[in-house]
Design brief:
The protein is built from two helices and 68 strands. It is 2% helix and 49% strand. The strands form 19 sheets. A four-stranded antiparallel sheet has the order 1-61-60-59, with no helix packed on it. Strands 2-3-4-5 form a four-stranded antiparallel sheet, with no helix packed on it. Strands 6-7-8-9 form a four-stranded antiparallel sheet. The longest helix is centred in the N-terminal third of the chain and has 9 residues. By secondary structure, it is an all-beta fold. The chain has a domain of 82 residues: Immunoglobulin-like (Sandwich), CATH 2.60.40.3080.
C-alpha cells in the first residue's frame, strides 16, 4: 500500500525550493523521471537520466543536479562511470567529449570530439579499470589513461568497410570483449596490435543474438541478448558457453550485484549465483532499467519514476524537481506562474496513446505540479491573461478547449456545445492551434483544420465563429494576436508571407459591423515582402513586430491595416563590419516584449536574441556555445513580467534566464532592494525592484556623495555595486533615491553593504 501511494504522488509532485534566482542567473528545467543507469560513488550515487545527471547523498538524503549550468559540456550525456580510487566521475557525450568531474570542478577532454577522422563519435558506455577508462564508441573502443589525462589507444573496429558501433566492453583476465548490437568480439590485451581490427575475433555463442549486453563477474563474462522472441543469458568462460536462463521478457541490463549477477527486466529482477537464477524483486508497476545493491537497499533506475530506493515493501522515489517530460511544446505565464504543455505521444515510457500532460511551475518558490490527462489527450495551446488571473484556457489536439478557473476544471468546449468546428478531414476531431485571451477572459481560438478557423468564446460561455475562410482559401491559419492598442485581430498562416486582419469593432458577437482584410507587406521601395511570417507581436508603443523566416520587420502604424498598402520598417543594426538588416537571414520562431519594451527573439538554429527597443542594437545573443542553452533551436519562449525570467523551450529541454527588466509598477509601494545587506561573500549584482517605469535612481553614501545613477528598465534596475571609478563601494549605509513622473512620485530606501 505504501508503494502505491508513493507512485501516485509522482504524477502530481509538488516540491519547494525557496531560493530566489538572481538577475543574470540561468536555471535548467529538465525531467529526471526516466533513469537509465546508476553508479556507486562512495557516499554518493550518480544517476544518468534522459534529462541529465543528478547525485543522491545517502548520509544527508540530498539531491543535486549536475548539468551544463555547473560545468558539463552539454546535455547530450550518454555514459557515466566513477573511479573510486581517484574519486573522479567520468561523463561521456554523444559528441565524443569526455567531462571529468573532481569535487565539483569539471575538466574537459576534447580529443575524440576534435578528431576529424571520425564521422560518428558518440560514447555509448564507459567503465574504469586499473587506472584506465574504457569507452565504447560508435567507431570502436577508446582507452584513456586517467593519471596522464590522455588517450593511450584507440581500437577502430569494422564490419566490412563500416565502423562498428560498440555499445559495451569489458575485461576478463587477459581478454577484452567488445559488443555491438549483434556481434561479440574478443582480443588478447597483451597483443600490441589491437589497433588492427584483424586482431579481434568473433565469439561463437552457438546462437545469433541481437541487443547484446555484457558484464564480468568472478572471472566470467555474462552475455545476454535476443533471438527471435526469446531472451537468453549465457556465461562465456575460456571458450566455454553455458546457458543460464531464457525468458520471453526483454532483458534491459545485466550487472554485478551482491555476490552475483542481477538480470534486469521491466517488471522484475532475477539474481544469478553460481549459474543458478532466482527471483530477486518483482513489481508490475515499474519499468526498470538498471539496479544496484548498497547499504541494505536495492536502488533501481526506473524509466518512469527515476531513482527508487527499495527496502522490502517500502519504495521511495528520489529525483530533482522538474517537469515529468522533457519534450515540452508550449509555455505560458498566468497568475504569477508558468504553465507548460507536453504530450506522451510516441514516448515508450508512457504507452497510452495521445495522453496529454501539463505542468505548473512557481518560478519564485520552485514548486512543480505535473498532471496527466487521458480525457483531453495532447495539449497544444494555452491562453490566459494577467488582468483576470482566475481564468486559463487550454487547447487540445482533438477535443476542443478546456477552461480552468482558480486552477480547477470549469468547462469543456467542443463543437457539440459551442461554435467550435471539427476538422474538415475527420469531421469528429477538433484541433486547437492557438488561443488569445483579452483582459476580460474572453478567448479567441484558432482551429486550423476546420472550415472556419476562428472562434470567439466569452467568459460566460457564449460563442461565435467567423465565416472568413473565403478570404484566404489557400492559407492555413495557425496563430492569432489581439492588439491592445487597436483591438484588431491579426492572424498569421503556415508557410505564408500574408496575414489576415479583423476589426470586430468591440462587438465580437455581432458580425454586422466587422471589417476583414487579407494583407501583404511592402518596404519603403514598394517591394513586396515574400518571407514567410513566423510570429507577430505588439510592443508597448503599439508597433507590430513581425518575425519571418529571414529576419524581423516592424509595422509602425497598425491603423493603416484597412487604408491601403502596409509599409514596413526594416531596422539596421550597426556592427563592426558595417550596418546590417535586423536578424538578416535568421529564421525567427517567436518574439516577446519585456518590461523595458525590448524584444526577446527565439530562433531556429540561432539561439535567442535580446534586441533594443527600436531594433537597432543587439543587447545579448545566447547560443549553446556561450550559455547553458541545450540547443540553438528555441521554438517557444515566455517571459514572466513580475520576475523578468525568460523561459526557453528547445528540442533538447527547457532552461530559463533571469533578465534585468520587469513590468513597471504604478507606484513605489512595493519597492525593495536585494540582497540587503550585501555580505562579503556575495559577488552578484544588486537589484532594485518595484520601480515605476523609467524611474530615475540615484545611490549616495551616508554623506550624500553620489556613487551611482541610472534609469530603470521597466520596474527593475540592476547595479553592479561599483562607483563611477569602477571600484566596489566600501562598507556602509547607502541611500537609494527613486523618482518618476518628473519627480512627482519618489521614495528613498536604505542599503547596507558589508565588505
Amino acid at each position: 500500500m505504501r508503494f502505491i501511494l508513493t507512485i501516485c504522488l509522482l504524477f502530481c509532485t509538488i516540491t519547494f525550493s525557496f531560493s530566489q534566482s538572481r538577475v543574470g542567473q540561468w536555471r535548467e528545467h529538465f525531467s529526471y523521471n526516466s533513469a537509465i543507469k546508476i553508479i556507486d560513488a562512495g557516499s554518493d550515487i550518480y544517476v544518468l537520466t534522459n534529462g541529465g545527471i543528478f547525485s543522491y547523498n545517502e548520509s544527508y538524503s540530498e539531491v543535486a543536479k549536475l548539468g551544463k549550468i555547473n560545468g558539463l559540456s552539454g546535455v547530450d550525456v550518454s555514459a557515466i562511470d566513477y573511479d573510486k580510487e581517484r574519486k573522479l566521475l567520468f561523463v561521456g557525450h554523444k559528441s565524443g567529449i569526455v567531462d571529468i568531474v573532481n569535487d565539483g570542478r569539471v575538466s574537459v577532454v576534447k580529443d575524440l570530439y576534435s578528431d576529424n577522422s571520425f564521422t560518428e563519435k558518440s560514447i555509448n558506455s564507459a567503465f574504469c579499470k586499473d587506472g584506465l577508462l574504457y569507452l565504447s564508441t560508435s567507431f570502436g573502443v577508446a582507452v584513456f589513461d586517467i593519471q596522464k589525462r590522455e588517450f593511450r589507444d584507440i581500437y577502430r573496429l569494422y564490419t566490412g568497410a563500416s565502423p562498428m558501433n560498440i555499445t559495451d566492453c569489458d575485461i576478463v583476465g587477459d581478454n577484452i570483449f567488445a559488443a555491438s548490437d549483434n556481434t561479440l568480439l574478443v582480443a588478447d590485451l597483451n597483443n600490441s596490435n589491437l589497433n588492427d581490427y584483424k586482431s579481434w575475433k568473433s565469439v561463437n555463442l552457438g546462437v545469433n543474438l541481437t541487443n547484446l549486453k555484457i558484464t564480468s563477474y568472478n572471472n566470467k563474462l555474462y552475455v545476454c541478448g535476443l533471438s527471435g522472441a526469446t531472451n537468453y543469458l549465457y556465461t562465456y568462460d575460456s571458450g566455454t558457453v553455458n546457458q543460464i536462463l531464457t525468458d520471453v521478457d526483454n532483458i534491459n541490463e545485466i550487472a554485478a550485484i551482491n555476490n552475483g549477477i542481477a538480470v534486469v527486466f521491466d517488471k522484475k529482477v532475477k539474481r544469478v549465483v553460481n549459474s543458478i537464477p532466482s527471483d530477486m524483486y518483482l513489481n508490475d508497476t515499474l519499468n526498470m532499467r538498471n539496479v544496484m545493491y548498497k547499504s541494505d537497499y536495492l536502488y533501481v533506475a526506473d524509466a518512469k519514476h527515476s531513482l527508487l530506493k527499495i527496502s522490502g515493501t517500502d519504495v521511495n522515489s528520489i529525483k530533482p524537481e522538474g517537469p515529468s517530460l522533457n519534450n515540452l511544446n508550449k509555455t505560458f505565464v498566468h497568475n504569477y506562474k508558468l504553465y507548460f504543455t507536453a504530450t506522451t505521444k510516441s514516448n515508450p515510457d508512457y504507452p497510452v496513446a495521445d495522453r496529454g500532460m501539463f505542468a505548473e511551475f512557481d518560478s519564485e518558490r520552485g514548486g512543480w505540479i505535473n498532471r496527466f490527462s487521458n480525457q483531453f489527450e495532447a495539449y497544444t495551446a494555452i491562453g490566459g491573461t494577467d488582468k483576470t488571473k482566475k481564468v486559463l484556457y487550454m487547447g487540445t489536439e482533438t477535443k476542443g478547449v478546456v477552461k480552468y478557473v482558480d486552477g480547477a476544471y470549469d468547462r469543456h468546449f467542443t463543437p457539440d456545445n459551442s461554435a467550435l468546428q471539427n476538422d474538415k478531414s475527420t469531421g469528429s476531431k477538433c484541433r486547437i492551434d492557438d488561443i488569445e485571451v483579452d483582459e476580460n477572459a474572453n478567448a479567441w481560438i484558432i482551429t486550423s483544420l476546420s472550415a472556419n478557423p476562428l472562434t470567439y468564446i466569452d467568459n460566460e460561455g457564449n460563442s461565435q465563429t467567423y465565416d472568413i475562410k473565403s478570404y484566404f482559401s489557400a492559407e492555413k491559419a495557425v496563430k492569432v494576436l489581439l492588439s491592445e492598442n487597436t483591438g484588431y485581430l491579426w492572424i498569421i498562416f503556415e508557410n505564408s508571407y500574408k496575414a489576415f486582419v479583423i476589426d470586430v469593432n468591440k462587438t465580437p458577437l455581432d458580425l454586422s459591423d466587422d471589417r476583414y482584410r487579407l494583407v501583404s507587406f511592402y518596404d519603403n521601395n514598394g517591394s513586396l515582402m515574400t518571407n514567410w511570417i513566423r510570429d507577430i507581436e505588439e510592443d508597448q508603443d503599439g508597433k507590430l513586430w513581425i518575425g519571418t523566416k529571414k529576419g524581423a520587420v516592424i509595422l509602425n502604424n497598425q491603423k493603416s491595416a484597412f487604408d491601403g498598402q502596409l509599409v514596413i520598417n526594416i531596422p539596421l543594426v550597426s556592427l563592426s563590419k558595417g550596418a546590417f538588416r535586423l536578424l538578416h537571414d535568421v529564421d525567427v520562431n517567436e518574439i516577446i516584449v519585456d518590461g523595458a519594451n525590448r524584444k526577446w527573439v527565439s530562433t531556429h538554429d540561432y539561439g535567442v536574441y535580446l534586441i533594443s527597443e527600436s531594433g537597432n542594437e543587439y543587447i545579448a545573443h545566447f547560443l549553446k556555445s556561450n550559455s547553458p542553452l541545450p540547443s540553438n533551436d528555441v521554438f517557444d519562449i515566455s517571459l514572466h513580467p513580475q520576475t523578468g525570467e525568460l523561459f526557453m523551450i528547445t528540442d533538447k529541454g527547457t532552461v530559463s534566464y533571469k533578465g534585468d527588466a520587469i513590468t513597471g509598477k504604478g507606484s513605489f509601494d512595493n519597492l525593495f532592494v536585494y540582497p540587503n545587506p550585501v555580505r562579503p561573500e556575495y559577488s552578484g549584482v544588486i537589484t532594485i525592484n518595484g520601480l515605476v517605469e523609467k524611474s530615475l535612481v540615484k545611490v549616495t553614501d551616508s554623506a550624500g556623495k553620489l556613487v551611482f545613477e541610472s534609469e530603470s528598465l521597466g520596474g527593475r534596475l540592476v547595479w553592479d555595486g561599483k562607483n563611477s571609478n569602477g571600484d566596489y563601494v566600501s562598507s556602509g549605509v547607502y541611500l537609494i533615491f527613486c523618482s518618476a513622473n518628473q519627480g512627482q512620485d519618489s521614495k528613498v530606501i536604505k542599503l547596507l553593504v558589508v565588505r
